């Protein structure tokens, strides 16, 4: 037999076989139905922003579908891959139906870990890319392969958007007990979809010379989209309290909030009004009280520049400096320190009339209300 | 060395028919197919390189088909031209049908906007390419047979003329 002729016949037979296989595959493909979801579904669960695209695949053809894998990735607008996922699906035998779901989720913590902070706070247009690959017509190996690569733009809504921290200094709550503590109402507002937990808020108070006089750090358990209210506390230490009871100042208040390593701060000023501004003991005078005792009249004056009105108990003590500091007498009165008003009042002390002139007496006056403030002055009879 | 050939009108006609058939198959049909596809699917873009390869290889195949038709079968010339024609067919399939000019053989892709669909027929294409080359080797066998047959016929001495190589006897 002519070998050339034999080879040609074999080649012809091979062509016929190939044509039959390709033809049957082409016909078979007509019975494969891929029904994707009409739209990309997004959902938010805690700090997960999930995208899913459910689909049905009906393999009504003669051949199994194998090497079926779905690769999904999400890129930001600059092309950086934020998350990707490759799923290898099981072979889909002929005449069967497969229900699948292309699913991928963006985790807010992942964004933080991948240094994609800005997506936490800014909108973007992300690229949702999926690549579906499969083999078809298996004769030991797949005769044909099919791959679809598609990129769809998706609008990314920032989980924490327009975050704003504001400190309201117009109506603070002030406590004067032991230490001056000022509590300012604060709001943190943002839109978006992410609830943030364990947020640290640092507060710093500086005086007019730029010296830090108070600082505090507090943790907010949870912040939710919308307006969140909390109080911002600034406590002046006890050693500085007497000064600020009697001196006005302008405080710079800086509130700093840190979320996912990004800080937001708000600086505002607050005019501190001392409740006992310029409080001082005036000229002490004496009057005869009776045959044995003398009345010391201790005037005092000041201005209440604070937003609060106080009922102050004024207790005065007279000590004999020359007599070893013994208590010579006391006096007490009550004064109303009206907010924003100046005050001028006096307290009287009855002491035993000194036996000789020129005796030194130390006068101590304690102003007691929600605070305690002491003034001293020497008096020579 | 002088090669004498008797080429009749019948051979020329046969060669021409073969050349026309090859031109229709490898140049005209692809040309109109591309034209049709470009009109039917305006987003489809065919590379100018593909067109050039079709003209170049197709033209060479037409010439080869003409000579293959002229030369009688089982002759050295027919075998050589057949071998060349087989090689050209393989090259044509490799570049044009197999799409190797794009860098990937047997892989075809369609891009519509941001969606790209890729069909991988590299296995089938490789088998077909192998079959084309296998068929081309049959001309090698025929060439060997033709050369063997030529040696088997003793040269005739012609006193009135200088020695010349034996002219090929056309086989009908």
3D shape of chain A:
rod-shaped
General shape of chain B? elongated
Q: What is the makeup of the main sheet of chain A?
A: 4 strands, antiparallel
The CATH class assignment of the largest domain in chain A is Mainly Beta
The quaternary structure here is: heterodimer
> Quick check: average pLDDT of chain A?
86
> If you consult CATH, what is the topology of the largest domain in chain A?
Immunoglobulin-like
**What order do the SSEs of chain A take from the amino end to the carboxyl end, as H and E?**
HEEEEEEHHEEEEEEEEHEEEEEEEEEE
The amount of beta strand of chain A, in percent, is: over 45%
- For the termini of chain A, the CA-CA separation is 151 Å
Topology summary:
The complex is a heterodimer of chains A (381) and B (172).
Chain A: H1 3-29, E1 32-36, E2 41-45, E3 48-59, E4 65-75, E5 81-88, E6 96-107, H2 108-113, H3 118-121, E7 124-139, E8 141-156, E9 160-167, E10 173-175, E11 180-192, E12 196-206, E13 212-223, E14 226-236, H4 241-246, E15 249-259, E16 262-272, E17 277-281, E18 285-288, E19 293-303, E20 310-320, E21 326-337, E22 342-352, E23 360-368, E24 372-380
Antiparallel strand pairs in A: 1-3, 2-3, 3-6, 4-5, 4-7, 7-8, 9-11, 10-11, 11-14, 12-13, 12-15, 15-16, 17-19, 18-19, 19-22, 20-21, 20-23, 23-24
Chain B: H1 9-40, H2 48-70, H3 76-97, E1 107-112, E2 115-120, H4 122-152
Description:
The complex is a heterodimer of chains A (about 375) and B (about 170). Chain A has 3 domains: about 30-155, Immunoglobulin-like; about 160-270, Immunoglobulins (Immunoglobulin-like), CATH 2.60.40.10; about 275-380, Immunoglobulin-like (Sandwich), CATH 2.60.40. In chain A, about 10% of the residues lie in helices and about 60% in strands. Chain A has helices spanning about 5-30, 110-115, 120, 240-245; strands at about 30-35, 40-45, 50-60, 65-75, 80-90, 95-105, 125-140, 140-155, 160-165, 175, 180-190, 195-205, 210-225, 225-235, 250-260, 260-270, 275-280, 285-290, 295-305, 310-320, 325-335, 340-350, 360-370, 370-380. Classes of the chains: A mainly beta (about 375), B mainly alpha (about 170).
């Amino acid at each position: 037999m002519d070998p050339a002729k034999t080879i040609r016949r074999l080649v012809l037979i091979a062509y016929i076989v190939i044509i039959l296989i390709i033809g049957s595959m082409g016909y078979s493909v007509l019975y494969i139905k891929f029904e994707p979801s009409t739209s990309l579904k997004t959902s938010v669960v805690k700090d997960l922003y999930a995208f899913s695209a459910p689909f049905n695949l009906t393999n009504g053809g003669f051949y199994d579908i194998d090497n079926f894998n779905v690769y999904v990735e999400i890129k930001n607008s600059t092309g950086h891959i934020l998350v990707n996922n490759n799923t290898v699906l099981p072979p889909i035998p002929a005449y069967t139906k497969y229900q699948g779901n292309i699913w991928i989720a963006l985790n807010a913590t992942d964004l933080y870990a991948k240094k994609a902070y800005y997506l936490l706070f800014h909108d973007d247009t992300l690229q949702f890319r999926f690549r579906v690959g499969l083999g078809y017509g298996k004769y030991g190996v797949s005769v044909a392969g099919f791959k679809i690569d598609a990129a769809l733009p998706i609008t990314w809504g920032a989980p924490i958007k327009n975050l704003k921290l504001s400190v309201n200094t117009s109506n603070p709550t002030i406590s004067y007990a032991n230490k001056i503590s000022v509590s300012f109402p604060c709001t943190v507002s943002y839109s978006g979809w992410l609830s943030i937990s364990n947020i640290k808020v640092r507060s710093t108070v500086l005086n007019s010379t730029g010296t830090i006089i108070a600082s505090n750090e507090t943790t907010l358990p949870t912040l939710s989209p919308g307006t969140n209210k909390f109080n911002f506390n600034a406590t002046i230490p006890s050693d500085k309290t007497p000064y600020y009871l009697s001196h006005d100042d302008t405080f710079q208040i800086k509130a700093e909030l840190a979320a996912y390593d990004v800080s937001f701060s708000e600086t505002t000023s607050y005019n501190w009004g001392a409740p006992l501004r310029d409080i001082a003991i005036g000229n002490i005078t004496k009057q005869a009280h009776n045959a044995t005792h003398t009345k010391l009249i201790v005037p005092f004056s000041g201005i209440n520049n604070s937003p609060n009105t106080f009922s102050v108990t004024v207790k005065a003590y007279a000590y004999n400096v020359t007599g070893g500091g013994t208590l010579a007498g006391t006096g007490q009165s009550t004064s109303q320190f009206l907010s924003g008003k100046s005050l001028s009042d006096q307290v009287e002390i009855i002491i035993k009339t000194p036996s000789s002139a020129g005796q030194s007496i130390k006068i101590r006056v304690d102003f007691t209300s929600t605070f305690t403030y002491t003034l001293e002055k020497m008096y020579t009879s | 060395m002088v090669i004498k050939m008797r080429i009749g009108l019948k051979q020329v006609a046969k060669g021409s028919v073969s050349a026309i058939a090859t031109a229709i198959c490898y140049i005209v049909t692809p040309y109109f197919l591309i034209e049709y596809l470009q009109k039917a699917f305006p987003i489809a873009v065919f590379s100018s390189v593909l067109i050039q390869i079709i003209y170049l290889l197709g033209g060479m195949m037409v010439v080869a088909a003409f000579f293959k038709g002229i030369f009688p079968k089982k002759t050295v010339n027919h075998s050589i031209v057949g071998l060349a024609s087989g090689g050209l067919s393989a090259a044509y399939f490799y570049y044009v049908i197999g799409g190797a000019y794009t860098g990937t053989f047997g892989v075809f892709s369609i891009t519509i906007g941001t969606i790209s669909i890729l069909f991988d027929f590299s296995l089938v294409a490789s088998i077909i390419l192998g079959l084309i080359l296998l068929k081309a080797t049959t001309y090698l066998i025929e060439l060997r047979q033709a050369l063997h047959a030529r040696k088997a016929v003793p040269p005739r001495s012609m006193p009135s003329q200088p020695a010349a190589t034996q002219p090929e006897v056309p086989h009908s």
